[in-house]
Amino acid sequence: MFWILILTLLALSLFAAFRALPLLTWTLGMAAVLVFFAIFTKVSATAVTVLGVLFAGLAVVLNYKPVRRRWVSAPFLAMYRKMLPTLSATERIALEAGTVGWEGELFAGNPNWDNLLEQPWPELSEAEKAFIDGPVEALCEMLDPWKNAHELAGLPPEVWQFLKEHKFFGMIIPVEYGGLGFSALAHRAVLQKISAVCAIAGSTVAVPNSLGPAELLVHYGTQEQKDHFLPRLAKGEDIPCFGLTGPTAGSDATSIPDTGIVCKGKYEGKEVVGLRLNFDKRYITLAPVATIVGLAFRMYDPEGLLGGKTDIGISLALVPRDTPGMEIGKHHFPLNVPFPNGPVRGKNVFVPLDALVGGVDQAGHGWRMLIEVLSVGRAITLPSCSTGGIKLAALATGAYARIRKQFNLPIGRFEGVEEALARLAANTYATSALSRMTASAVDMGDKPAVPSAIAKCHATESARKVSSDAMDVHGGKGIIMGPRNYLGRSWQGIPIWITVEGANILTRSMMIFGQGAIRCHPYVLNEMSAARMEDRVRGLEEFDRHLFGHIGYTIGNAVRSMLLGLSFGGFATVPSDRKTARYYRKLTRYSAALAFASDVAMLVLGGKLKYKEKISGRLGDVLSQLYICSAMLKRFEMQGRPAADQPILAWAFHDAIYKMQTALAGVVDNFPNKAIGSLLSIIIFPLGRIERQPGDRLGHKVAQLLLSPSETRRRLTNGIFVPQSAANPVGLLELALPRVIAAEPVERRILKALGKGELDQMNWRRQLAEAQSKSIISAAEAKELKAVRAMVAEIIAVDEFDIEVLRMGKSKRSKTAKSEAA
Ligand SMILES: Cc1cc2nc3c(=O)[nH]c(=O)nc-3n(C[C@H](O)[C@H](O)[C@H](O)COP(=O)(O)OP(=O)(O)OC[C@H]3O[C@@H](n4cnc5c(N)ncnc54)[C@H](O)[C@@H]3O)c2cc1C
To answer: Active-site residue among 103, 215, 461, 501?
Structure first.
């Protein structure tokens, strides 16, 4: 009977932890069980008394706050203060920027899936649809990616004119300032479509609509600045760029050495208080063509002209190109994608204080402005451009794999190629869902700091993988550059996307988990604030409250993690749909595991976790994959659960779950404290590491979905520009695909006849005539086959050039590059 009592107490505790019941409820429940056993069972009185006394002691310490604070929270707080990572002002701003949405539930270990499914699924407005079907489609028709990149090294004047006329640079500028005032979803749709056609045009449109003068002015500009600049920016009368990065300050952007000294100077003939700017920026997109340069610099007021402190901090200003002292450098050449990009330098450039974004009031708040704006911009620009490129690669690769034959079979039928196609389809599905969900979050009013880092990092990484797979499937066709190559240049350019707006290694290993752990955790930020409170008594009270919430939360997640691991997620409360319930269960399980592992990592490693990037990167991977899976499920539900898409969802889902297991396994196997790592392993993987990569049969089904036109293939690749012209290599692929498929039975008949020795001709044209004469194929079939084979010949053709065309001329290292080195 004693052991039954112990087991009952244990079961009650596990239940309370699993359901996150309040401490008092657990205490009363335990007391009731003890009383019940003492009165109604024959359990030994001594045993009950000993247990009762022990329990009473524990209950008092845990529930009676003065005792709890004195004996538990106060010593812990003293220890905590020593462990607390030192945060610079800029780090604190970064951590506090943005809002927390669905990712908060995923991080906290017990997501309520109804909340995800009930979230709105915004759609494009009629005006936005009309813009995408009208000017965007017309722009795509105008673009000639080979000519733009190889012959012109930029966009021709008529394209620039078209972009300005149709306000492509004013998508995020409100209508009242002459912009288009588009939603994030529309912004995404435009970039997705353009980028898939021409990366130069994609970058040119992306930058003015991303982190830069317009976005900064909309949020922080003074009324005069908005009135002056926004209409000009919307119409393209001013072309903006924004310079943060310099030779010594790349990822560590807050270390910029550029300065703005408050001083008196002459401006338009009058002496005014202004800023003397000295700066050296590089890699600045649109700088070579910009008329207005946004700059980040550190502002000082040594003479006290503003009456405050000397070191004011990072500030932002808008400086016209023609300001004396400003030097717009030459062009950089980013990976064979020659969009306008180059250095900007300035020596003693004097501007009035009005040049400060937001005026003097916003002086010193530059970093906060950039981070806040970045939390939105990062959710849209690169995820949308990546999605466009990925969709095009999926569409073209599927068609090519069906059209291109080797060993008398479409290459897409070979298992090796199928592997690449399955990955490609699943990555397309996942990335598109991720990019849409993050853009939708912006439209719902969020500033999704963590999801935008996830989206930036994983969409661009996915583009890298998809692009490599697409290149592999195309073989030499992808490698030979020329107008017929629709893949090679974007494959080259993908590291640009990987690097800009926070290079991916840093984003993955520092930002996603670093921000996530503090922003999404229900207690950590509160504990940190309490520990930093100057009023020590209130600080202790607050800390005690959050600490005990935190302890319950950690125990709950440990129990949930283990029980969900043992039950294959069976104890989780999930939407009860036959097809997808098991997905939600698995995600709930890994969400609990992430929450528990994160807490243990933070508790054991404290401030050192900041430098343990291999651990935090892996934890960030789990959060990212949970978010991506949520986006896929939301997409599946919102598209009406199309059964035909199920294999792609299943493949992408199993792949993501396997990645989560790999990441968590990496955390436990490499945990700096081996004993704790082993304990974590038992709790997170009570039945071992049972997840498997998606199976071959599933991979086969997914790959085949890319090889012929279908609703699934259309849904997977919708929103990109597919020209209805055989003169365009992608248009030709799409026009040829149904005809190639229809001709396959005829081709098989000819092959069979050849196998039987019924055809003697060697040349394929004569062979067709012979087959027709011997009634193996009809006249109409012969005619169609001829046309199809001509199309195929064009599809598999590659370009050739005279060597003179390939000579780029003598390269001269620019003077500025030399002076940089000096
Ligand atoms: C084509 C192009 C266009 C650009 N456009 C603009 C623009 O318009 N305006 C602008 O201001 N900037 C622009 N940039 C700059 C871009 O934002 C930076 O290149 C980027 O922030 C990385 O800086 P870096 O290249 O100096 O790399 P580095 O900072 O030298 O980093 C090199 C590598 O180290 C990694 N790393 C660095 N620190 C850490 C860390 N603590 N933990 C883990 N990994 C770390 C990085 O992730 C990266 O992989 C552009 C860059 C390019 C290439």
So the answer is: 501
